[in-house]
Amino acid sequence: MIPRIRPMQFRRLWQPILAVVVLALAGPLSNASAQLGNGFPSLSFPNEDANGDVIELQASFEAADEGAVGRLHIDAKLSPAWHVYSTTQPPGGPLPTKFTMADGSQAKLLSPFVSDKDPKRSQAPEWPDVTIEEFETAVRWTAEIEFAAGVQPDAAVIKIKANGLTCQTGGSCRPFEMDLTAAYKGTYQPVTTEATFRDGDYAVEWTGELLPATAKPGDAVELKLTANPDASFHVYPGSIKDENFATNFVLTKRGVLQPGMPTPSEDPVTLDTPIGEATYQKGKTTWTIELKIPEDAVPGTHPVEGYIAYQACQDTSCLLPKGLRFQTELQVGENGKGAPAAVQFASAKRAEVMDFIAETKWDNAPEAAAAPTVYGQETKKSYSVVMMLLMGLGAGLILNLMPCVLPVLGLKLMSLTDQAGQDRKAIFSSNMWYSLGVLSVFWVLAGLASFFSFGWGEQFTHIEFKLALTVLIFAMALSFLGVWEIPVPGFASGKFSQEMQHHEGAVGAYSKGLFTTVIATPCGGPLLGLVLGLLLGQSPLLIFAVFTAMGIGMSLPFLLIGVSPRLVSWLPKPGAWMETLKQLMAFVLLGTVAFFFNMFSDDQKLPVFVALIGVWFGCWMIGKVPNWETLSKRLASWGAGVASAALIGFLAFRFLMPGDVIVPWQPYDEAKLTQLRSEGKTVMIDFTASWCATCKWNYHSAINTDSTADLLAELDVVPMLADWSDYNEEIKKKLIELESQSIPLLAIYPGNSPDQPIILRDLVNQADVLGALQLAGPSQGEAAAASGDEISVEVQSGGGKQVQAPKAGNIPAAGPVSLSAL
User: Fold this and answer.
1) What are phi and psi of 801, to 5 degrees?
2) Per-residue DSSP letters for 655-714?
3) Of 541, 547, 699, 784, whose Cβ has the fewest other Cβ atoms within 10 Å?
4) Among residues 672, 140, 807, which one has the least CA distance to residue 685?
5) CB within 8 Å of 671: residues ≥ 6 apart
6) What subcellular compartments does it reside in (predicted)?
7) What domains lie within the chain, and their CATH numbers?
């Protein structure tokens, strides 16, 4: 199941490509500014003249095979380009979706509503400090319920009030308020499930449950929160204080419930490292928090909400610290139930989580926060300001020797060789400007760390930044190899020319310092993680001082040469050999590109690779017209080169990037297909593979589309995806059965004639797919047409023919019906 990128996201991806290509090829350019709205999105309220509702809600419920509990479903279907916000939407932003039991309902909620998929999370200019959680196309929310005493589930009346906000992407918003009555849908066998959460591609997955979901006054329940780090990663022991290098817990909403201490399922381990003892949790760890219900607790719903600040580390390096919010509900009643309640998770800003931890007492008793013993507390060390500055200096100096920094040392080497023939004053000026460039980056990072909790290297978590920097470095490597030439101001004699050269020298040295430091930020030396950890929660003055020490440490070799220029005398004089060195440095830069390439997710690597080929082609076009040609010819070559690179990059992300799953696919399974056909279900199977370009085109343009999804839902068709990316004997047998040995192939089994599948081969368009689905007809049941009725449909085939569907009884008794052959 792969996410689909919407047009707005395409623009976010290809615009950085265009901007950076222009920057890399044309030098300093004016920055384009985006036009933003001036506040909140416009609101439009539905009325009688509105063109239909943009959200459709349907409620249904099921009863468990045993006991008086069940589950309530709310299904939402949205119009194209509209979205609705989650039930866990953080406060301070758009209205969350809310469902409550209405008067007259013969059931009560036992748990909060949980969605069947993760919401799309983003930031919006209207709410800059809030994470937006939204759903598009369709979503199902489910909550556990308990039926009223004496009520039979199949006769229960369940009424729900729903309210929330729907918004159009880049457009207006419509609040909604609806009264729903749930329809009974039979029974189910309860299974214990846990909600899972992962913050993007971070190396820790969280699960949680409240056990049991219902209890009586005087009982105790257990809140279980489990951290499962990826292989080679670990998290730190639990704490209820705002401590660095700990998994910090806080309960911000618990009402009258009395919490016990977070108890880990496994004791932490302590190991000796070069920088001291390190205590951490090894592997998967579950913290259990006992919640005691007072004897005088009022029956009803008791929300439980809290936050966790955590960090994933390996033996030699750490990822950025993270924060999350969790919430669930406990039902206090006359009887306790054995079923657990799900725990919902959402991302949260770590700085805010640490503030909550510092300001919120774990228990009502003042001494409770100081009472618990926290593993690893005895190993916590404090350092003087002088020691922290020295550690920052050492961390910056060591940063020059880190593996991901070594590739860019070639740029420094070229700067040093350039200085070999310069006078003392020029060497001093150049190195001071270079060091100022290094320090500038560290000062920016210090400001972000002080006021926005922006961590070291965090800019590399944004694909736009990674893509822009990768394109820039690749374009520079191509210039070093002679594919194209970076424009250089003329070297004519005269005072103005000399002043320009001096100005360019200062700008060039400063730019090299900036560029080298920015590239270095993905890495961290042995001291860097410790220093950054010690700075968490410190004053802005100390943070700026330590970051300045880091910058001085990283630029120290250049500072020494600037102060004592005779140290440069050991370098060879400039000559023809420098051209060979420049070409060698191109391969060093290409190595840096390879390092950055590995930072992209697997889904992003192919479009990034194609985008780099586009940059290569654009640079080649520019290089075909030398700098001594006329201005009009050079402008034409630059325009063509930049446009070509941007277009190729845009198309790469438009068609090679996997997209959101619009159609609710099920994996292909022959046994499941046989069962569905026996039940009279219409089934659509898309035979595809990652190596099939035509399959991808069909999928994005005609199959996995809103129009197809709408018709599938209307006809109650079950979509199945047969992924043949790796060899699969079952799929091969099915293809042979369908008289095909190649893909793409779309097979649709009609519900009223399951032995006569309709086949679409090779390239198809939207009309082909919709026509074939209409020809197949609905699943047999409520929506099915009478078997003897004639269905008259016009199908526009890939070859341009129009076909009128025959009566169901006139279809041949066996074998597939191929539309491409009609």
Assistant:
1) -85, 155
2) HSS-----S--EE--HHHHHHHHHTT--EEEEEE-TT-HHHHHHIIIIISSHHHHHHHHH
3) 541
4) 672
5) none
6) Membrane
7) 55-188 (2.60.40.1250), 195-377 (2.60.40.10), 385-459+487-575 (no CATH), 666-821 (3.40.30.10)
